[in-house]
Amino acid sequence: MTNTVALNKLVIIGVGLIGGSFAQALRSAGLARHIVGIGRSQQNMQCAVEIGVIDEIASDIACALHQADLVFLAMPVGQTGYIMEKMAPHLRANTIITDAGSTKQDVIAMARHHLPMQSRHHFVPGHPIAGAEQSGVQAAQPSLYLDKHVILTPLSETSTDSVERVRHLWQACGAQVSLMSADEHDQVLAATSHLPHILAFTLMNHLNHGTQQPENMLRFAGSGFRDFTRIASSSPEMWRDICLANRATLLEQIDAYQEELNSLRELLKKRDGEALKQAFSQARKIREQWLRTRSNS
Ligand SMILES: NC(=O)c1ccc[n+]([C@@H]2O[C@H](COP(=O)([O-])OP(=O)(O)OC[C@H]3O[C@@H](n4cnc5c(N)ncnc54)[C@H](O)[C@@H]3O)[C@@H](O)[C@H]2O)c1
Ligand SMILES: O=C(O)C(=O)C[C@]1(C(=O)O)C=C[C@@H](O)C=C1
User: Fold this and answer.
1) Which residues cross the membrane (predicted)?
2) Which of 125, 154, 212, 235 is the S-S candidate for 158 at Cβ 3.0 to 4.6 Å?
3) So what's the architecture of 184-296 in CATH?
C-alpha cells in the first residue's frame, strides 16, 4: 500500500465530530473507498449514514475489522482500553491503527497492554489540534483539519511505513503533521488545552455559587465572557476522560496557575497599579507574538 493509494476499507470507531470529519475529509480527497462506522448511539450512527459520512454501520467489532486497511479510534479516551481489548483478536496483520485522543501516554499504555506486538508495529498514536465545543456526527465538517496541526507520537516499535501512511492521510485532510514524544505532548497540551478547559468550566460554576442568580449576571455578559467560556460547552464525558488521563500533569498546571492568580491578587491587594499594568502588558505581548507566528505559518 503506497501513500497515495486510497484505502479500500476505512473503519471509524466513534463517529462524532472528530471521526466524522476525518471520514469526510478523506472521502473528499478520494482516499477512502468504503467507510464503515461503529458507535454507541444508534441514533447518531443512523444519522452518519443518512448524511453520507459513513457507508455502513458495522454490527460488531469483528465485522468492522474484517479486511480493514485502517482503523481510526475517535471515541472518548476513557473507552480506549475497552475498545482495544475487543479489537485485538480480530486485527489482521497489516491493518493500520491510529487515534485522535487528546491525551497520548494513556492511549499508548492501553495499546501496550491490549495489542499484540504485530499490531503495535502498525499503531500510530495521533492527535489533531482542531475541534470545537460541539459533539456528534452532525457537527462534523470536511474542512475541520484544514491548516491545523496534527501531532503523531509513534511507539519505538511503530513502523516508519505506518507513520508515513498516517502522515500522508492527515496531509490530505489539509493538516500540518509533527512528531513528538507522548510525554512532551501531554505536558504541552495540559498547558494549552486541558487547563484552559478547566478554567472555562470552573468560571461557569463559579457564577453559579455566588449570591446573585446566575441568570441575572449572565443577562449582561458580553462577547469577552462568551469568547472566554465557549469551550465550557464541550462534552463533559470527553473532558472527564482527558482530565483523568492527564491527571498528574494537570494537577501541576493547576497549582502553578493558582500561584499566578495569587501573585496577581497580591498586586491588587496592594493597589500596585504599575505592576498590574506590567503583568497585563507582558501577557498581551506574549499573545500577540503567538498570533503573529500563527499567521506566518
Ligand atoms: N472535540 C474536540 O475538539 C477534539 C479535538 C481533538 C481530539 N479530540 C478527541 O477525539 C475523540 C472524539 O471526540 P469528539 O469531539 O469527536 O467526540 P464526539 O462525542 O463528537 O464523538 C465521540 C463518539 O464516540 C462514540 N463512542 C463513545 N463510546 C464508544 C464506544 N465504546 N464504542 C464506539 N463508539 C463510542 C460516541 O457515541 C460519539 O458518537 C476524543 O478522544 C477526544 O479526546 C476531540
Ligand atoms: O476549539 C475547541 O473547541 C477545542 O477545544 C479544540 C481543542 C483545543 O483545546 O484546542 C480541544 C481538545 C483537543 O484535544 C484539541 C483541540
Assistant:
1) none
2) 154
3) Orthogonal Bundle (1.10)
